[in-house]
Design goal:
The structure is a homodimer of 311-residue chains.
Chain A: H1 12-15, H2 22-28, H3 35-40, E1 47-48, E2 55-60, E3 63-69, H4 75-86, E4 94-98, E5 103-107, E6 133-134, E7 142-143, E8 153-157, E9 160-165, E10 170-173, E11 179-182, E12 196-199, E13 212-219, H5 221-225, E14 244-251, E15 264-266, H6 271-281, E16 304-305
Antiparallel strand pairs in A: 1-15, 2-3, 2-14, 3-13, 4-5, 4-14, 5-12, 6-10, 7-8, 8-9, 9-10, 11-12, 11-13, 15-16
């Protein structure tokens, strides 16, 4: 199995494909680099600090989960989630579902019981569906060169996996690992952000354009992906004691500055990120005997790091 | 979020696409069915009992993991794994790696230390690479109609996700969730089955044709997918006490008949399985507002059940 290691020599087999004198090829052809090498060489400007207004911090006994909202794609759900977090809606609620190779989901276990359910405070009970948005100039789109079976074009936008269709003029977020969405009933406008799920397995892209994605887990995914599975229908825990407590879910901008999580995310419109995509399409690691020459949207890593000053 | 439920009415929007009188359409167009409905109607002959010679039973404190070998694709690795299991090689060894969204891996934690490593008994220390095989008449291939970025043709063969390339004449197994492979070093022929990994996240198809897949976990995946992650390089546990003990790993054919796991697997060359693929390409569930009209290889479920007589 591949291990994290530095590649000390270029993949000579690639040079063999170029019909120019070897000396010339060595001088001009850039050496294929691994992702680690590309990230190590990234200028500071290729990293961004997410806006604290878009960061939700979920505290579990297992550890801290950090989630970045996508207000450019789900403005109303993002606004409602800020209100819910500010007013402590999720504090004391539970993780109620853990379905293997699909999703982990949290919210009010009594949400379907009008008599028992928790008050939404000043948050809205109903929101419009935000499954997609129109293709806009202010929404960058770093397209990957490879085909995708689910959408005409796929790539990354503002740090999130995304897709678009020039024929319909629509652009939307895609259900990759660690993406977070707002659960709904059968009606398209039946989500309000009180019920959230995160993808923990193979990307369920059939959900794209069927439900509102609100953001992505930046760190702490391992606290959610390892929660005990339920084999009951839909992976819902059957007994109340199986549920996992949410100690607190806060909006970072309302936390004291010193307590806010320090994190940096690689810009998906940067030269570094484009180089990373290419490095993953054709692995330079010595372990790989065959380079795929392809990548699926949900196989592209989205690097997150501690800022240099906090290390 | 979608829940398991029966669809009581046909999706009328599909009828609207057919320009024939409504009464005729209702009589002749088959009602779209959900996967549950398709499985409930499957004849007994569409299910198979795996050969006990191909079943490995791994006992952990967490529960039992059942693995089916793929001797038609990896004959030498399968034979070696039978020998290793029969002679108790894995008993008392450990799970040493759990990398989020990638793999869980088990074997001899001292495998790299010639002085400390466990004897292989009569198993072979070196095997040839079994990354692919020639396309043969005795290897059924149920092709899915959708495009795939990693291979010219994808589908299912003998219960496993597979791919093939008519141009090279090669056919191979694909790295989907729950597939199990034999770890290797940088040399293509450096695996022998003593180091096994299972896919626990987004399908890492870049590994296809780079490493030998030996089979698939049929049940008990949740015992592996929820193991605590290591954030160290490659997801390897750093401290010996983090490792998870393998109490026993047995070949089912060598277990007393009464103790062998009872399991049935849906035949991937059956009419039922073909209907299931179509049901997942275009979901009939009332929850889905938009049918994808597509599926990726690794999104197709491979149903496993307890045999009717053991329920």
């Amino acid at each position: 199995m591949p291990q994290v290691r530095r590649v000390l020599c270029a993949a000579l087999s690639m040079c063999a494909l170029i019909s120019v004198p070897q000396a010339f090829a060595e001088e001009t052809a850039p050496k294929p680099r691994t992702m680690d090498e590309i990230l190590a060489a990234a200028p500071a400007s290729d990293w961004r600090k997410p806006d604290a207004q878009n960061l939700l911090v979920m505290q579990l006994a297992q550890g801290t989960v950090l989630l970045e909202l996508a207000p450019d794609y789900a403005p109303q759900h993002s606004a409602n989630l800020r209100t819910l977090a500010e007013e402590g809606y999720f504090d004391g609620l539970t993780i109620n579902r853990s379905q293997d190779n699909f999703v982990v989901q949290w919210g009010d276990a009594n949400g379907d019981d009008q008599a028992k359910r928790k008050s939404l405070g000043s948050a809205k009970a109903a929101l419009p569906a935000e499954f997609s948005t129109v293709i806009r100039n202010d929404l960058p789109f770093t397209r990957i060169p490879d085909s995708d079976g689910w959408a005409p074009e796929v790539g990354f936008s503002l740090g999130f996996p995304a897709a678009r269709d020039p024929a319909t003029g629509q652009q939307w977020l895609a259900h990759c690992y660690a993406m977070v969405g707002a659960g709904r009933g059968n009606a398209p406008d039946s989500s309000n952000g009180t019920e959230l799920y995160v993808v923990i397995g193979q990307s369920p892209r059939q959900l794209d354009l069927n439900i509102t994605l609100v953001g992505r887990v930046l760190s702490g995914m391992e606290h959610l992906s390892t929660l005990p599975r339920s084999l009951a229908a839909g992976g819902f825990y059957e007994r109340p004691e199986q549920r996992v407590a949410i100690q607190r879910l806060s909006l970072a901008s309302k936390m004291p500055e010193s307590e806010r999580p320090k994190v940096e995310v690689l810009r998906t419109d940067s030269v570094t990120f484009n180089a990373l995509i290419e490095a993953r399409r054709n692995r330079a690691d010595a372990w790989y005997l065959r380079k795929a020459g392809h990548i699926d949207l949900c196989n592209v890593p989205l690097p997150v790091r501690n800022p240099p000053e906090s290390r």
